[in-house]
Write a structure and sequence with these properties.
By secondary structure, the protein is α+β, with helices and mostly antiparallel strands. The protein has one domain (16-64). 23% of the residues lie in helices and 26% in strands. It has helices spanning 24-31, 58-64; strands at residues 16-21, 40-45, 51-55. Strands 1-2-3 form a 3-stranded antiparallel beta sheet, with no helix packed on it. The longest helix has 8 residues, at 24-31.
């Protein structure tokens, strides 16, 4: 998914926050300080709460980790 939010914020805007999702074992590893790749990353508009982009692409997940 790749679109602007309902309040017209683009993915590169400062009002967009990133939320990462991890598997159960990913969270377990994070508790011990191990760096793990998320399973999904959403970019969400802070004003309207719309998911602007969402990715599960391993290349992009590595860039964010």
């Amino acid at each position: 998914m790749n679109a602007a939010s309902t309040c017209d914020h683009e993915p590169a805007n400062r009002t967009i926050r990133t939320r990462s999702y991890y598997s159960f074992w990913g969270w377990f590893a994070l508790l011990f300080g191990v760096t793990v790749l998320p399973t999904r990353i959403d970019r969400i508009c802070r004003r309207c709460g719309t998911i602007v982009t969402s990715t599960t692409d391993p290349e992009e997940l590595r860039k964010e980790a």
